[in-house]
Amino acid sequence: MTAVLERASLRHRLAEKGVDRVLWLLVPGAVFVVLLFVYPFLYGLQLSFQPKSGGSPFQNYVTFFSDEYLAETVWITLRLGLPAALFNVLASIPIAFRMRGRFRGKRALTTLLVVPITLGTVLTAEGLLAFFGPTGWFNRIWLALGADEPARLTHNYWGVLFSLIITGFPFAFLLTLSYLSGIDPTLEQAAATLGASKRQRFRTITMPLLAPGLAVTFCLSFVLAFSVFPSAVMVGNPAGETHVMSIAAYETALRDNDFAMGSAIAMLMALVMLIVIGVVLIWRTTLYRGATGGKG
Amino acid sequence: MTGQRFAELHLDHVRRAFGDTLALKGMDLTIKGGEFVALLGPSGCGKSTALNCLAGLLPLTGGRITLDSRRIDDLPPEKRGFGMVFQNYALFPHMSVRRNIGFGLSMRKTPKAELTRRVDEAVRLVQLEEHQHKFPAQLSGGQQQRVAIARAIVLEPPLVLMDEPLSNLDAALRLEMRTEIRRLHQSLGLTTVYVTHDQEEALALADRLVVLRLGEVQQVGSPEEVYAHPVNRYVAGFMGYRNMIPVTVTAQDDERATVRADGVELVGVKREELADHAVAAVRPEDFAVVTEAGENTLDATVEIVEYHGREQAVEARLRDGTQLHVRTNSRLAPGDAIRLKVPVERVLVFS
């Protein structure tokens, strides 16, 4: 009798540690992650260490950095991804700030801002070609305003950057808006009654509480922009100015049939992204990251 | 620490609409420097709206607010310089207790030495010395409340606004903080406007009560005036429990009214002009259980008895079915037939 009293049943002890039948709900997700992410990733990783031509396991990586055309893709991709992500995050702040709270037409405006997500990259790229192309509306107006020659805004760096901004902005905006809505509005009211002007309230209350969210938004926007592929081909100059890493990986693997080298480029792509995200998240740890509600 | 005194804050027909509904229907109120005024009423009575209008967090729909004949209702909150204590405290979660308290001073670019001195003083005043370097999330509800109060009063504002500051605390802490707020008011003399739905809190704290209902002021007066001499049926029912006995009016002069309730004649104080039908308001503790017949007595049957220590809470029923709540020291049991006597001045007759 005493033994029964001293020890709770196995089921209770397991439940205490969080092991119960609800865990089965994790199974589909876990299987999915293993089959579609972990396995392909590890397969690609080991493949990248088996160069087609034989030799050192690191041969593919050595080749990448010694081939200027390939090595340059890192810089080209960063030059597109970083400004696009930064612009999207910064541009979303004032708009999200204005769109907090309720007002007439909020839903229509949100829809308008989010629609580019539904269009897809290809449609956006085609639109850009038509609008910014040498005979597009933009250049017709540009020339009518007295310019000597049409502005070159497609099939180069700018075309891809515009495309990344158009498709990436909705994500950045939605994330920023949700972070901003999570900040208790009475905090700003309290700051106002304590004599803080609008600018001071933004600087001392809103910004510090929003910054960790902006860091995450930046990371996600960056990842999205860094893996750019379709627009780099369609509105960019895929052989030169916008020869981004994903194009290099694709060409190597599927045009030159060198899957090992293609895998190596894909791995380097992941590494660059991880480094950028790592730097941003390390900065984020220096910020206040607790609750942003009123009770603190 | 003494606040920048003012002589008179005047609300002149202040109105505020939300959509088509008027939350505040023309509020007139004069607050004198140093006073502790409580705005009292149930939720939706407009008390918080009035406070937010005073703070500048809500623009007025109409009317004006003047501070010593200077118009202030067109100033943004940061220019009014009133301290405010929010219901949810609204402490800045990313700042330590000290930085929270010093926030207003640093916004005013107060020199560092003075800022330190005044924050020290405020921290001491609300007894948070041990916790001054913690963050709000590490504090208990009562401690957070103290920070919120210190943050509002460190600026020595001419007016402190408090929006149900005790409603998030448990009962024991609520009593303790209530005393604390009264103590701070007495030692600092800061003019305070305090919003609450709790009549006990309002009676205990305020020099003057403003009873609101549906955006309209019902009565303004000292706690005793409002408690003992309510001007209408609504205030009578709201300020502590009163039995509302339906009666028919048989006679009335300027002060007294004679009414019939349950076939018995009652004499009471006339509080309003009366028509034929009226209500007699009587507090449960104003009934005395008596044996002999006499003036102002009602016969009732005891139905439920609750033991409350020194006294009993009794639910009794008149012959016509009207329920009465009675508090008495007599020991009664369900089924007892009792005779209840009530003094004339404790029967308030309202239309």
Oligomer: heterodimer
Radius of gyration of chain B: 24 Å
How much of the sequence lies in strands of chain B comes to 35-45%
Profile the largest sheet of chain A.
none
Keywords (chain B): ATP-binding, Nucleotide-binding, Transport
GO molecular function (chain B): ATP binding
InterPro entries (chain B): AAA+_ATPase, ABC_transporter-like_ATP-bd, ABC_transporter-like_CS, ABC_transpr_MalK/UgpC-like, Mo/tungstate-bd_C_term_dom, NA-bd_OB-fold, P-loop_NTPase, Transp-assoc_OB_typ2
Pfam families (chain B): ABC_tran (PF00005), TOBE_2 (PF08402)
Give a structural overview:
The complex is a heterodimer of chains A (about 300) and B (about 350). Chain A is mainly alpha-helical and about 300 residues long. In chain A, about 75% of the residues lie in helices and about 0% in strands. Chain A is flat, with a radius of gyration of 25 Å. The two termini of chain A are about 50 Å apart. The model of chain A has no long low-confidence stretch (mean pLDDT about 90). Chain B has helices at about 45-55, 75-80, 95-105, 110-125, 140-155, 170-190, 200-205, 225-230, 235-240, and strands at about 10-20, 20-30, 35-40, 60-65, 70, 85, 160-165, 190-195, 210-215, 215-220, 245-250, 255-260, 265-270, 275-280, 290, 295-310, 310-320, 325-330, 335-340, 350. In chain B, strands 6-7-8-3-9-10 form a six-stranded mixed β-sheet, with helices on both faces. In chain B, strands 11-12-13-20-14 form a five-stranded mixed β-barrel. In chain B, helix 3 (about 95-105) packs across helix 4 (about 110-125) and helix 3 (about 95-105) runs parallel beside helix 5. The model of chain B has no long low-confidence stretch (mean pLDDT about 90).
Structure, briefly:
The complex is a heterodimer of chains A (296) and B (351). Chain A is mainly alpha-helical. Chain A is built from 13 helices and no strands.
